[in-house]
Amino acid sequence: MEYDVHVRSDFEVLKTNTYSMNIDEEVRDFRIPVKTPSSIKGMSFGGFSRCLYPIQKFDAENERRFAVICEQDPKVKVWFKPALNQLKIYYNQKQSYNQIL
Predict the structure, then answer these.
(1) Which of 15-19, 28-32, 49-53, 63-67 has the lowest mean pLDDT?
(2) Do the beta carbons of residue 28 and residue 40 sit within 8 Å?
(3) How many CB atoms lie within 10 A of CB 35?
(4) Rounded Cα gap, residues 44 and 35, in angstroms
(5) pTM (global) more than 0.90
(6) Which residue in 34, 12, 16 sits closest to 25, CA to CA?
(7) Is the pLDDT of residue 12 over 50?
(8) Is residue 49 helix, strand or coil?
(9) CA distance 83 to 52
């Protein structure tokens, strides 16, 4: 399989991520697995050392686990979960990928 990669010299300023959360909900340690994965969208996570943002929300347990890997891997210097439409990833010539919330 071959890929046609185009890297542009311009850049985009990171958007501020805004979240809503239940007033009774505490920010959870991202290292601790979620007991009920279907409820992860309503949770907020913190305790990161390499994430650009102090608090992140995840759409699935796999995203939280990936954050654990990013935080533990010494090759990863910085990571973040982009805001909706933050990054432009194109496939099939002109179709763009959008993160679904």
Answers:
(1) 15-19
(2) no
(3) 6
(4) 14
(5) no
(6) 34
(7) yes
(8) coil
(9) 12
